[in-house]
Amino acid sequence: MNITIIGTGYVGLVTGTCFAEFGHHVICVDKDQKKIEQLLAGKVPIYEPGLEALVAKNFQEDRLQFTTELGPAVSGADAIFMAVGTPSSRRGDGYADLTYVYEAAREIAPHLQGYTIIVDKSTVPVGTARQVKRIIAEANPNADFDVASNPEFLREGAAINDFMRPNRIVLGVDSERAQKILKMVYDPLYRRDTPAVITDIETAELIKYAANAFLAIKISFINEMALLCDALGADAVTLASGIGMDNRIGNKFLHPGPGYGGSCFPKDTVALMRIAQEAGQNLRIVEAAVEVNSAQKAKMVKKIRDAMGGSEAGKTIAVLGLTFKPETDDMRESPAVTILPALMEKGAIIRAHDPQGMEEARKLLPKKGITYVENCYEACEGADAVILMTEWNQYRALDLDRLAQIMREKVFVDLRNVYRPQTLRDKGFSYTGVGRS
User: How far is CA 199 from CA 138, 182, 212, 213, in A?
Assistant: First the structure.
């Protein structure tokens, strides 16, 4: 099939590349000339394990193309997937900004030829697909098309596997023709008996928000329990294991830490709250999760300060990990973006290392008071404390004897509970974890 992807950001590029790997002919369109030139030169503008090789393979085999020319890409398409950004509104009210979605719909409309299905791949509020349909119909009354919702469930760092071996496919359609086309698009997954949820458009749009909100609630819950463990002298890691063995609960997303971040959970939970409020409902559990997450980051600042004897002024802190999770270069809403400036304001000197995130960190963190280094041990040399902020694999087996020799003070703050407390204490470190008194 001929598939066009509008937008070559994280979702668009992964989706287009994986569709090409399925055997479809895919054209990825983006207005950003520089980004398209990068892709044509074989350079992937985002870090995602395995993506660069897969892009190169399908580009060389002529199944994957990149262009800034919208018209030809749209006119020859059987299905058009809109994967443009839906950031939080600049008004600061938490609503999703649908400017790019509606702009894409207007630009697609005049180029449609023959029956085409337009698919919302971006995370959008309930009712967006209906609006897209109205916009296209007004701009091109003769167009023969349907609009569908097909939300993505891609984890950064594991996106290719998530696309190729998903837990489920969600298809929101209101015509048999649209359903038939989308089943053909996803035929390789149907052949593997991948579960499919075929529903109305509104339910499909809501499923993505509900899924992200539920996971955010689990994270906030275990973080609150970790704080209770700190107060009572219990161990949050063992607690999480104990409740996670119950198959009604499950062990995923029960890892105490500094709070969730990234491109999805922070904006999607707030957007869902606004959707509910417009419908005359209050999602009090979601509201509590958002509040807990915000407070968790502030409490991590105090935890670090307490570990350093009550003051970080004039002290050097080695920070290992800056991205919101490992295996990505994404710094959006990362705990580091909240925690580090608060420490720097009180006079801390930061030496930071991250395998992939330092370029993005330079754009988001204050310029003064922080130095980026290319080696984690270089970050720790002469430091008064080390903060393990992101659980990259290379930080899981640090040479603790070496750290003990090169650090000025042996303070280890493990915000991801990677290490056993006693292991650090046996090496002479003062250890602080999350919920591990």
Answer: 26, 13, 19, 20
SS3 116: strand
Domains recognised in the chain with CATH numbers: 2-199 (3.40.50.720), 209-290 (1.10.1040.10), 296-432 (3.40.50.720)
- Give the Cα separation of 196 and 190 in Å (integer): 8
pLDDT digits (tens, 9 = 90+) for 48-64: 999 999 999 999 999 99
Structure tokens at 399: 């040479």
Cα separation of 254 and 167, whole Å?
19
- Phi, psi at residue 210, to the nearest 5°? -65, -40
CB 173 within 8 A of CB 205: no
pTM greater than the 0.90 cutoff: yes
Q: Round to whole Å and give the CA distance between 254 and 245.
A: 11
* Ramachandran region, residue 176 (left: φ > 0; alpha: ψ -120 to 50; beta: rest): alpha
Locus of tokens 């995130």: 357
Tens digits of residue pLDDT in 297-354: 999 999 999 999 999 999 999 999 999 999 999 999 999 999 999 999 999 999 999 9
DSSP designation for 173: -
Return the closest-CA partner of residue 343 out of 363, 372, 322, 314: 314
- Joined together, the tokens standing for residue 68 give 């800034």
User: Tokens 């394990």 label which residue?
Assistant: 49
C-alpha Rg value of the chain to the nearest Å: 24
CA-CA distance, 289 to 278, in Å (whole number)? 20
Helix ranges (H only) for 122-175 are: 128-139, 159-164
Distance CA 427, CA 163 (A): 43
* Residues known to be catalytic: 264
User: Nearest-CA neighbor of 336 among 346, 325, 345?
Assistant: 325
